[in-house]
Amino acid sequence: MARPQLQPSPVQIRFVDFELDEANACLLRHGKAVALAPTPFMLLCVLARQPGSLLSKDALLDAVWGHRHVSDSVLKTAISELRTALGDDPRQPRFIETVSRRGYRFIAALSPGATSLPEATVAPAGGGQPSPPFVGRADAVARLHREWERAYGGQRAVVWLAGEPGIGKTTLIEHFVSGLGSVACARGHCVEHYGAGEPYLPVLEALADLCRSDPALPALLRTIAPTWLLQLPWLSTAEERDGLRRELAGVGPERMLREMGELLDRFTEQRPLLLVTEDLHWSDRATVQLIDYIARRRGRARLMWLASFRVAEVVALDHPLNSLRHELRLQRLCEEVVLDPFSEIEVADYVAQRSASLARDEAFVRALHERTDGVPLFVSSVISEVMDQADDDVTIEARLANLAVPENLAAIIDHYIAKLGQEQRALLSAAAVCGAEFRVETVSLALERDLASLALACEELVHEQVWLMRSRAGEGEEAEERPYSFRHALFRQVLYDRTPRALRIHLHRQVGAALEHERTAGVPVAASELAMHFDRARQPMIALRYYAEAAETALLHFSPASCVGLTERALVLLQQAPEGPERDALEITLATLQGVSAFHTLGVGSEARNAFERAYTLLANAPEHPMRGRLLHGFGYLLGLRGDYALALVVAERAEALSSEANDPALSLVACIVQGEVHHLQGRTQTTRSWLERALALAEPLDIGANEIFATDPQVMLHGMLAIELVRSGLIEQGRAHMQRARTRAQALRQPMTRMVAAWQEVLIEVRMGNHARVAELADEMQVLVDEYSLALGRTACRWWRGWADARNGAPRDGYRCIREAYEEHTGLGMRSGASEVLGYATEALLLAGDYDGAMAELQEALRVGEELGERVYLPQLLLLEAAIAREQGRPDAGANAVRRAVEEARAQEAPWLELRALVELCEHHDAVPAERQVLAALLGQLPETQGTELAQRACTLLRAERSD
Questions:
Q1: In terms of DSSP H, where are the helices of 154-249?
Q2: If residue 437 lies in a helix (H) or strand (E), which one and from where to where?
Q3: Which keywords does UniProt give here (predicted)?
Q4: What number is the average pLDDT over the span 725-738?
C-alpha cells in the first residue's frame, strides 16, 4: 500500500453558513462552534480538501482510518454523524453527495474569498507526544469523551472497551483518564483465578481506591451500603463488623446490587465518577451481574463505567459477559468500543516517535506491520529492540530482518524470555505463578532467596520496561511498599505456560507455603488464592481446607453463587484425596456449605437436598463435626419446606441424640425447633407447645441470636410460634403477649430476617382471627423487607397474604390471582410446606367472588395436597369452606356434615379456638341440635381469653337468641 509521506496544509474554507478551520480543529456556524467528534471532523476536512471530486470509499478509509482492519460501516457512521452536524439531508444533499457503491463528494458552494491552501509540509515527528507515545485511536477517544459528556450530564453510561491482548486497552484508558483532569476516578482490575473468583473483586478494589481519596465515602458506605462496608474490613472495627453481620443475617445477594446502585447515585450527586474495571474476561459472575443492574437502573447518575476485556476469551469461554454485552447493546444501554490493530499509517506514526526518517521508509514500516500484525504492544517491543541494539555497523533494516520475529505473537514473547538470565527467569517464573500482581517478599520466601537481592532484581526489570512495573499507589502508600505487577498480562501468561509443568507444580507449592507464612504474620491473603495454589500444587487436602474456608467466607459476604462454585470445584478435587476421617470431615463441611448456598440460590430442589443428604450420611463417621448444628438445622428446615415431614422428624431425632451425647444445648435447640415446626403443620397443638416451651427454656439463657446455625433469632421465632399455638388453644391474651415479645425483640435486634419471621408469624395469627385489615398491613410490611433486603423468605408469602386480604376487602378476583400466582411460584421452587393452607386462601377468594365451581376445585386440590403431605393444620378451616360452598350450592345436609367434621377435627387437634369457630358456624347456618348449642356454651365458658373477640361476640349473640326463644 502506497503511503503518503507528506501531509497537506490545514484546510480553511467558508461554505454557506459554515466556516471550517482545520488548524484550529473547529467548525463554526454563524460564528458559533458546532459539536463534532474528531473522526467526522477529519472526514470533513478530507472531503473539503477536494471539493467537487468523487472520493472513493477506499480512499476515505485510507485517509481517515488507515483503511486496514476497519469496515465500510465505520465510514457510513461517520458520514451520518457529519450530515447530522451540518443539517444535511442525504435525499436532497447540499453538502455531501453519495455516489452509489462508489463513494462521496463534497458539493457545497464555497463562499467568496474562501481559501484552501494546497502547499504540503513534512509530517511532524511527533516529539510533543506524551510518554509513552499515544498514536491513533482518535475515534475511540472521541467516543469515550462523548460518553463521559453524557455521564457528566446525569445520564449513566456503560462503555465496553474490547480488544485482543496487547491491543492497547490500558494505554487508551490511561490516555483518556489523563485528559479528564482531576475527576473522581476509581479503578479496579480482575485477575485470573481458578474456579470461582472472589465476588466483586475489581469493584471492591475500585471502592477501596475511592475510599482512600475521598474521606467522606466510608461514612456514606455505613449509611447506604453496609453489605459493601463488610467487604472492606479495614474501614470498621471487629465489633462493628460482627454487629453488621447480625443485622444483615439472611440478606440475599440482590441487596448488594441495590446498595451499590444507591451508593453510586448518592455519590454522583456531588461529583461525577469514572469507574474503570479492567480485564473483565477474568471477572466473577457477581461483577457482571452488578454491571447489568447498574446499566438497567433508572434515574439520574453522573456515572461512567468503563470496562475492558478480551473479546476472544469472552466468546471462547462462553463468559456471561458475552451475552450481557449483546443484550445491553440491543437495548441501547451500553456503548462498545472495539480496538483494532494499528494500520500501516499508525505504525508509521508510532515509528516517527523514534525516528522521522525511518517512519518515511515504506518498506520498513510494511515489514514491521506484517511481523507484528499491527498489535501495538509488539510494535513497541520490536521497534525498541531494533532501535536499541548497539551494533552500529548494521542498519536498522538489517536488524529488523535479522530479528527472528515469528508470525505467532506469543513467540515474540518467547524471544524476550530467551534473553533472560537464569536468576531473572527463576524470579519471573515464580512471580508468574503468584499472579498478575505479587509481593517481592512472597517470591523471596518461595525461592528461598535473599529479599534485598530480589528487590534489586525486580527494580532492574522495572527499569527495562518490558516485564514489570510497580502497581499503582494508594494515598499515603510509599513506592517501596507497593507490590509489583506484570507490565502486560500476556507476558505473564506466556511465561507461565512456558514454565515446565513439574516446575510449575513445585512453584505453586512454594508460593502457597510462602503465602501461608505471610498470612500468619498478618498479611491479608484470601483463602481462595491459597486454595488455587495448593490445588495446582497437587496437594488436595490442603487445598480442600482452604476451599472450605473460602466457601464459608463467600457466604458471609452474601455471595452464595460463589460458594456454590468453590464447593463444586472442591468436591471434584475431593476424589483425589485419600480416604479417611479427615476427608470425611472435609466433605461434610463442603457438602453442608454447598447445601446452604444452593438453598439460597436455587431453592429447596434436588441440588440443596442432595448436598445436605450427603453430609448427613457422613455425619455418622464424624458425630462431633463442628458444622453439625448448621447441617442438621439446615437439612431439617429444608425437608420441612419441601413437605418431607417424616424425614424432617428423623433429622430432629438425630440432633436430639447427638445433643444428649455431647451435652450440646444448641443441638437440642435445633431438634426442638424442627419438631415444633413439623408438629404444628401436622396439627398437633399440645405436642407442638411442649416442644416450643422446651426450646424457649434452652434459647433464653443461650441468647445466641442469628448466627451460622440459625438464620433468624431463635427467641423471636419461638415466641412467635408459641403465640400461634396459644391462639389455637383459645389463649388469645397469652398468645398476643408472646407475639408482642417477639415483635419487640425483633425490632431491637434490627435483623431483617428476624423481623420477617416475626411478621410472618403474626400474620398467621391474624388470618386465624379473621382480621384482614391487619393482614394487609403485615403483608405490606413484609413486602418492604423483601424489597429492601432482597430476602428470599417472604417473597411469595407476602403476596398471597396480600391477596387474601384483598379478597376479603372487596376484590376477590384480584386477590385470587395474586394468591394463585404466588402459590405457583412458591411450589415451583419445590416448597410445599403450608400448601394446603394457601390453597385454602384461593378457595376462599373464589367463594367470595361467587365462583362456587372454581372454589370447589381449589378446595379439592387443597384437601388432596394436605392428605398427601400429612398436613392437617388448616384442615378445620378447609372443612368450613366446604360447608360454605355446599350451602351456596343449595346442599344444606352436605354443609352441615362438613361443619361437624370440622368440629371433630378441631377437637382431635386440641385446638379449642378452631372448635369454637366451627360450632359458631354450625349454630349460625345449620340446624344445630340442643346438645351442640350446649357444647358451644360450655366451650365459651372455658375460654375466658376469647372474650372481646368478634368470634366470641357472635357466639354470645347466638346463645342469647336461643335463651330468648
A1: 169-178, 201-213, 217-224, 226-230, 238-247
A2: strand 437-438
A3: ATP-binding, DNA-binding, Nucleotide-binding
A4: 96
